Amino acid sequence: MNTAMIKELRTRTGVGFGDCKKALVEADWDMDRAVEIVRAQSGAKAEKKADRAASEGLLGLALDGDSGAMVEINVETDFAARSGQFADFVERAVSHVLDRGADGVTAALEGERQALVQEIGENVNVRRAACLEASGGIVAGYLHQDRRKGALVCLDGGDSVLARDVAMHVTAMRPLVVNPEEVPPEAVEKERAIFVEQAADEVAKKQEQSKKPMPAEVLERIADGIVTGRVRKFLAESSLVEQPFVKDASTKVGELLAAAGATCTGFERFEVGEGIE
Questions:
Q1: What pLDDT, on the 0 to 100 scale, is given for residue 243?
Q2: What does the buried/exposed string (b/e) look like for 47-86 if buried means 16 or more CB atoms within 10 Å of the residue's CB?
Q3: Quick one: residue 117, left, alpha or beta (phi over 0 = left, psi -120 to 50 = alpha)?
Q4: pLDDT per residue as tens digits for the range 45-94
Q5: Which tens digits make up the pLDDT trace of 196-234?
Q6: Could you write out the three-class secondary structure of the chain?
């Protein structure tokens, strides 16, 4: 047994000692053939594991001047997510996105992904990636210490400290959009339908508890008022600029930005496993 060749193959491919030995034996100790065998086996193993749920993982975040990138890479277990090999792959993935953009990142990293599946024995999924660029503005990011949730923020005006504070706020408070008018109409209508049902139930209870029946038009006005108020609250809670700032609830984020002569032109927020069934 040529231990030096096994170690070399392991260094070149990142797979385990036993798999490297088997590949070299199969290749009759030809290093180039052994590398091809390992890569082929990596692809086969990755395909077998592709249907296994991967909802754990890590986020990667990288900044460079007026650009920022973020990725979510999933794996099956928290134990694997804490491994050095997995963390290294996440860093390479986010560096790729920062340098080349989010489009095509999954295909570009497929070979490395398959090798990592071979190495750690679990399904790995490059789930999503985002890249923000500021033309004359500021891009900042915040990544929670557990690397499971984070955000990128782009500001026009202000400074890097403010931008990072806003990114921290986005991470913690989960706004859907920057401004209320940007909430998708379908989301508003979905919430409105829920509020209409709630209002109908509440008005019916008021009628039951009333000593004398209220006219239908009065009941309708009460229900409309309940719905309008709750839609307004939903829009405020969903919008970055209308949310109370996470570090000072007496100030809205929009007021904080305005005081610095800044506007938020966009953000991205990721949380590991969010939306995975």
A1: 96
A2: eebeeeebbbbbbbbbbeeebbbbbbbbbbeeebbebeeb
A3: alpha
A4: 444 444 556 789 999 999 998 999 999 999 999 999 999 999 999 999 99
A5: 888 888 888 887 777 777 777 877 888 889 999 999 999
A6: CCHHHHHHHHHHHCCCHHHHHHHHHHCCCCHHHHHHHHHHHHHHHHHHHCCCCCCEEEEEEEEECCEEEEEEEEECCHHHHCCHHHHHHHHHHHHHHHHHCCCCHHHHCHHHHHHHHHHHCCCEEEEEEEEEECCCCEEEEEECCCCCEEEEEEEECCCHHHHHHHHHHHHHHCCCECCHHHCCHHHHHHHHHHHHHHHHHHHHHHHHHCCCCCCHHHHHHHHHHHHHHHHHHHHHHHEHHHCEECCEEEEEHHHHHHHCCCEEEEEEEEECCCCCC
